Amino acid sequence: MNSTDLMRLGELYKELRIARGLRLKDVARDNLSVSQLSKFENGQSMLAADKLLLAISGIHMTFAEFGHAVNGYKVSDFFQLGTKVAELQTASDIDGLKELLSQYKGDDIFSVYNRLNELIIKSAIYSLDPNVKIEESDKQLLTEYLYSIEEWTEYELYIFGGCLAILSDEDMIFLGKAFIERDKIFLSLPQHRKAAHITLLNIIMTLLERRQLFYVDFFIKKLEELIIYQDMFTIVSLNFFKKIHTYLSEESSHKSDIEDYINLVKQLGNPQFVQILHRTLSVILDS
């Protein structure tokens, strides 16, 4: 970090501290002195990693919140890309996705991460047009990368969840089980828990589409183990998938049970969510 970056980081920290009505001595503690904080804020010296974490917690912020402020309150380039892909995919805009793929360039065209980011776009295109060819080398890169990571972060969750369409049943189930085994350390973080829930919901939906009903039970049980009473989106979505699962696996069940459930959800006053449920039901039953 050069002197200019150091100065800006210290200035930002000072602004955030003052905005919270805190003095240097309010933040200081046994292993973090007022002098160290003052030099950091004035750009004279950098704090060691452990002391920086103490300084951040001392102004009642999480490291993620402080990082967001350092990044100018903007999401990372990757998650901006992910949001754009999701918007185009939801709108079934294949041309838009192809244009995005042609425009997208990472820092290093040969880097693993650049190829994975491009694969997110390719997978979205494939989900809308299965005739699009996905190279076996891309699929191999995806599976080898994910299996090589011992503890999955939000990045791995997003890569996996966004590329389910191009994975074979065997690879998806194999990596899904690996994800459950390797996604434990960060589950206490609310944003990570949310990402894990979404990933499991996507796995369940894809398995229902492919009629892999035996494995649907396995992943439903794993998701139920993670849910708490506050996770209403996950609870509503999971119950929806459970009703579809019952309909597909039991001859005595009726599609009207699913429609009745969607009508109940409609009463929550979220028409966009209801539209998604209707569209998801059509995709699964027509597959």
Task: Walk me through this protein's architecture.
The protein has 287 residues and is mostly helical. It has two domains: 3-70, 434 Repressor (Amino-terminal Domain); 135-286, Serine Threonine Protein Phosphatase 5, Tetratricopeptide repeat (Alpha Horseshoe), CATH 1.25.40. Helix content is 71%, strand content 0%. It is built from 16 helices and no strands. It has helices at 3-19, 24-27, 34-41, 49-58, 63-70, 77-90, 94-103, 112-128, 136-148, 154-162, 169-182, 190-209, 213-226, 232-249, 255-266, 271-286. Helix 12 (190-209) packs parallel to helix 14 (232-249). The N and C termini lie far apart (53 Å). Residues 14-66 form the HTH cro/C1-type domain. This is Transcriptional regulator. GO terms for molecular function: DNA binding.
Please outline the helices and strands.
Elements (H helix, E strand, L loop, with lengths): L2 H17 L4 H4 L6 H8 L7 H10 L4 H8 L6 H14 L3 H10 L8 H17 L7 H13 L5 H9 L6 H14 L7 H20 L3 H14 L5 H18 L5 H12 L4 H16 L1
GO molecular function, one term: DNA binding
Protein name: Transcriptional regulator
InterPro entries: Cro/C1-type_HTH, HTH-type_regulator_Rgg, Lambda_DNA-bd_dom_sf, Transcription_activator_Rgg_C
